[in-house]
Specification:
This protein is an all-alpha fold. Among the domains are: about 70 residues, Serine Threonine Protein Phosphatase 5, Tetratricopeptide repeat; about 50 residues, no CATH class. Helices cover about 75% and strands about 0% of the residues. Helix 4 packs antiparallel against helix 5, helix 5 packs antiparallel against helix 6 and helix 17 runs antiparallel to helix 18. The longest helix is centred in the middle third of the chain and has 21 residues.
């Protein structure tokens, strides 16, 4: 009986030691903050979890994504590299690390960009190796090859082979890549046809209508662009993040800014935000539109709303400072 009691006591003591050494990590709250657009809260929550459990890969990963949304590439890369080193078998960690490397490559001098571009390719290739069935990883790797110089591997034969592998999992995405290749080669009639085929292959998904709208924007076909946007945002099953993307397209085109502002207000008033369409960026974009429409006070209110969610978001900070001069 004494032996049983001692063993039970030892087990209790062991559980206490283990719990103290590796406390439970609550990453769901961090993710919720990212989705809702409260990036400051996401950063604070992630840093809190890392303080309790420094070797938790998921907390480093989510912190890296938070910095990514702010376009703080160095901080994002640092955290994502930590996540990938702590869990070297995660395709998702490698995918986001490749994205951060790619953004860094676009933000530095040409000579420095080459090194970052090689890291981008390696991370995407590793992501595909770890999860060959990941359409996201294969898509980002194909995207890299489409935009990379030839000496970094950007060759048509490689691009087409990678598109074929995507087609086995996602025909619509593969068709969309074929459309972009045709556009890159200035075969605009073929490109338009392929973009339409991608819409059909997707079952009329909103994102593919917006891809078509973006193509029309690049071709300065404003009427067709706005029709594609109307179809996209009018779909019964439209993802609310598409409202943000549609507003961005209109803003970049400088067309129908009233509609762009209405789309953003609808998105911001919804309780279903998306991480791909950060609410703080939606506030900033709405502020930019209002400023263009000569509503400085309303624009300033939107910039402040963005900074309330993401105080380190430099575009909003600079825009507000400019208005207050």
């Amino acid at each position: 009986m004494l032996l049983v009691t001692l063993l039970a006591g030892a087990m209790v003591l062991q559980s206490v030691v283990v719990a103290h050494a590796a406390p439970a990590v609550n990453t769901s709250a961090i993710h919720d903050f990212l989705v809702s657009g409260y990036v400051d809260k996401a950063i604070q929550a992630a840093q809190g979890e890392i303080a309790k459990s420094p070797n938790d890969a998921e907390s480093h990963f989510l912190l890296g994504r938070a910095y990514y949304s702010l376009k703080h590439w160095d901080k994002s890369i640092s955290e994502l590299e930590k996540a990938a080193s702590l869990d070297s078998r995660s395709s998702l960690y490698q995918l986001w690390l490749g994205r951060a490397y790619g953004e860094k490559a676009s933000d530095v001098s040409f000579l420095s960009a080459m090194g970052w571009a090689k890291k981008t390719r390696q991370a995407f290739e590793r992501a595909v190796q770890l999860d060959p069935g990941s359409v996201g990883a294969r898509s980002d790797l194909t995207e890299f090859y489409m935009n990379a110089p030839g000496f970094l591997g950007g060759r048509r034969t490689i691009e087409k082979k990678k598109i074929q592998k995507i087609a086995a999992k996602d025909e619509a995405r593969a068709v969309e890549f074929r459309a972009r290749l045709a556009e890159k080669d200035k075969n605009y009639i073929e490109a338009e046809q392929e973009f339409h085929k991608a819409v059909a292959a997707s079952g009329n998904q909103t994102s593919y209508w917006l891809d078509l709208a973006s193509f029309y924007r690049r071709r300065s076909r404003w009427g067709d662009m706005e029709k594609a946007i109307q179809t996209a945002v009018g779909a019964a099953a439209v993802k609310l993040g598409a409202l943000f993307e549609a507003a961005e397209i209109l803003h970049r085109a400088g067309r129908n800014l009233d509609s762009a502002a209405d789309l953003l207000r609808k998105y911001l008033s919804s309780d279903k935000k998306e991480e791909e369409a950060p609410a703080f960026r939606a506030h900033y974009l709405l502020g930019s539109i209002l400023e263009q429409q000569h509503h400085p006070e309303e624009a300033a209110a939107q910039y402040r709303a963005a900074l309330d969610m993401a105080q380190e978001y430099q575009p909003a900070r600079e825009a507000l400072a400019k208005l207050q001069k």
